[in-house]
Design goal:
Blueprint: E1 12-13, E2 16-17, H1 51-67, H2 74-91, H3 101-131, H4 138-149, H5 156-184, H6 199-223, H7 228-257, H8 273-283, H9 290-314, H10 321-329, H11 338-355, H12 363-367, E3 370-373, H13 376-379, E4 386-387, E5 390-393, H14 402-411, H15 414-424, H16 429-436, H17 449-465, H18 472-496, H19 502-513, H20 517-528, H21 536-554, H22 562-572, H23 577-585
Parallel strand pairs: 3-5
Antiparallel strand pairs: 1-2, 4-5
Helix pairs in contact: 1-2, 2-3, 3-8, 4-6, 5-7, 6-7, 9-10, 9-18, 10-18, 11-15, 15-17, 15-18, 17-21, 18-19, 18-21, 19-20
Length: 601
């Protein structure tokens, strides 16, 4: 590849060089400024009467889950179901009408959380039934660990026999799957009956095998060497079963799921279906159907399309927004200079927000954040920046091949970064982390992507409206992300509805948003192969739209200033935005509250 493709011209923005040499405030600010002046305010009691109740629930649940450590076993599901049902009964005894606005919010949130947890147990039980033919030994492994937790005496001879039996059950299940593979190729043979399954169920089973292996190892190591009789009986059958579990997991991943050794794992995911999406939306207090959300996303897409064309025309490309986007992607800094760019963009955004008194940014939040480079392996699932306490910068390394380097440079260009840095740092996620650790910490239990990601994207809305982008190239940088968030709703909901495959999702991001194929693949892999909730990708745009509607309700008519509005959101804690609305308005929720705020109509 010609070297000029990797080394662009000197970066200039707004007529001046971006890579400044002035020290950051953290280098000059007095340390005493990090001590809050309003210490007297911190001595006031918690705002919610139910704060300790919520904290007690969360702590007690964590204790139970630490004890019943074999997740998704029958005993785990039974004990957690009993726990949630008991809490529902006790919560019903709280004198709701005596509570103030914040107490009612917590009572409503906890009631919703308990209902949701019980629905999740139902979902887990159904999935356990679907994987049972592939994992007939799963409950037996769980029972070994659970018997140890109950401190029941161990019979080494009996457990050795149980281990041998489990290995036979595993071998029978594997033989059934191998028979199904042969039958699918048109070569059925006499032998075990074929076991039919799907890639998704096999993927789920392979992941469960990893957890079961850990439970088996933990159980064996507890006794081995401390009980010589146990070791004498169990060491050989334990080793044989462990090797069989490892081989079976490899078989499931390679022969059923389709993982090729030495290559990236295929994107499989685990669609939850329409009923699952409806349950998730109820928990998030979003009174819309999946289909209505897709329609809203398409409406926002139409706005983006018009803005794309307007910016492209200003750049001299007519309505060819893809050509304008291609020009923007070629505007990146020399390798090695991305940290300097991020630093200056962060300081610029902080000054922009503070000059306009949009939100309170305490000195400690403004100064104390770190910048770290993202490892190449992580960039396969996070091709762009990540943020929170720190900002992780996605950028090419010398270990990547030339095509990977170029795609990473293009995907993390100057104008994309200008919209990403404040999203991840200030006033975006870093400010959230600051307040979450200090105010209404108990509401971490109710955290939601509609609050977490909605807040950060809302600032992209705000910065756009306040003319933070000063050129059509900057606007295209912001439009790329805004369009991307519309696309996230469409591809993730269609996937969970069973309408789209992961490959269709990737193609959609490339064709409709203008992603590099590598970054589109990483985005879809992150969405479906990771541990994100099914509505996580929906939360960005829908959370921002909720905050936009709330801003129009409270700030536009003058009932609050921008600073009061944004500070109030941060001080209320993480929770569904409809509860943020109740918090800002100090509403007295009724005992039978049902979410009904049609924020996007």
């Amino acid at each position: 590849m010609p070297s000029h493709r990797l080394i662009p011209a000197l970066l200039v923005m707004f007529g001046s060089v971006v890579l400044a040499a002035d020290p950051a405030p953290v280098a000059t600010r007095a340390t005493a400024d990090y001590v809050p002046p309003e210490l007297a305010e911190l001595t006031k009691p918690a705002s919610s009467e139910l704060r300790e109740l919520v904290e007690r629930f969360e702590t007690d649940r964590a204790e139970l889950q630490r004890f019943y450590s074999v997740k998704n076993s029958a005993l785990y599901r039974r004990r957690m179901r009993e726990f949630y049902q008991a809490w529902q009964q006790r919560l019903g005894q709280v004198a709701f009408l005596t509570l103030g606005p914040e107490g009612r919010i917590d009572a409503t949130l906890l009631r919703s959380q308990l209902t949701y947890e019980l629905r999740l147990l139902d979902r887990e039980e159904k999935r356990a039934q679907e994987t049972a033919p592939l994992l007939p030994f799963a409950e037996s492994i769980a029972q070994l660990q659970e018997s140890r937790r109950m401190m029941q005496p161990v019979d080494g001879k009996a457990t050795a026999a149980a281990l041998a039996r489990m290995r036979l059950e595993l071998e029978e299940a594997r033989a059934g799957l191998e028979a199904a593979l042969k039958a699918a190729k048109g070569a059925p043979e006499a032998g075990p009956l074929p076991i039919t399954t799907t890639r998704i169920i096999a993927y789920r089973a392979a992941n469960r095998l990893t957890d079961l292996r850990k439970s088996l190892d933990d159980w064996f190591k507890h006794y081995d060497g401390y009980d010589p009789v146990f070791s004498w009986w169990n060491r050989a059958p334990y080793k044989a079963l462990g090797e069989a579990l490892d081989g079976y997991g490899k078989f499931l991943r390679e022969k059923i799921v389709g993982v090729e050794p030495g290559k990236d794992e295929p994107i499989i995911g685990d669609p939850i279906g329409r009923d699952g999406l409806v349950a998730e939306l109820q928990h998030e207090m979003i009174p819309y159907t999946p289909e209505e959300l897709i329609a809203i996303a398409n409406r926002e897409f139409a706005w983006c399309d018009a803005e794309w064309k307007r910016a492209a025309r200003e750049m001299g490309y007519g309505d060819d927004w893809k050509a304008a986007l291609e020009k923007v992607k070629q505007d990146y800094v020399e390798p090695g200079h991305q940290p300097e760019l991020v630093r200056d963009l962060a300081l610029e955004a902080i000054k922009f927000v503070e000059d306009r008194q949009l939100v309170t940014i305490p000195p400690l939040a403004a100064d104390i954040w770190r910048l770290r480079m993202m490892p190449p392996a992580q960039q396969k699932v996070a091709p762009f920046f990540l943020g929170g306490n720190d900002i992780l910068v996605s950028y090419p390394t010398d270990t990547m091949d030339e095509d990977e380097k170029l795609q990473s440079l293009r995907a993390n260009n100057i104008h994309f970064a200008r919209a990403t840095v404040f999203h991840e740092l200030l006033p975006g996620h870093h400010l959230q982390y600051y307040y979450q650790a200090r105010v209404n910490q108990h509401r971490e239990l109710f955290t939601t992507p509609f609050w977490v990601e909605g807040w950060a994207l809302w600032w992209e809305f705000q910065m756009w409206d306040l003319h933070f982008p000063r050129s059509p190239e900057d606007r295209i940088g912001m439009l790329f992300w805004r369009t991307h968030r519309c696309a996230r709703i469409i591809f993730s909901l269609n996937f969970h509805l069973g309408k789209w495959t992961p490959q269709q999702c990737i193609d959609f991001l490339v064709d409709r948003v203008g992603h590099e194929r590598a970054s589109a693949t990483g985005e879809v892999r992150r969405s479906f192969n990771g541990d994100y909730s099914p509505l996580y990708q929906v939360g960005y745009m829908m959370g921002a739209l909720q905050l936009r509607a709330l801003h129009a309700e409270l700030v536009t008519p003058g009932r609050m200033t921008d600073r009061q509005f944004h500070d109030g959101i941060m001080q209320g804690g993480s929770m569904p935005i409809e509860m943020v609305r109740a918090h800002l308005k100090q509403e007295l929720l009724p005992p039978d509250f049902v979410p009904a705020w049609r924020f996007a109509d």
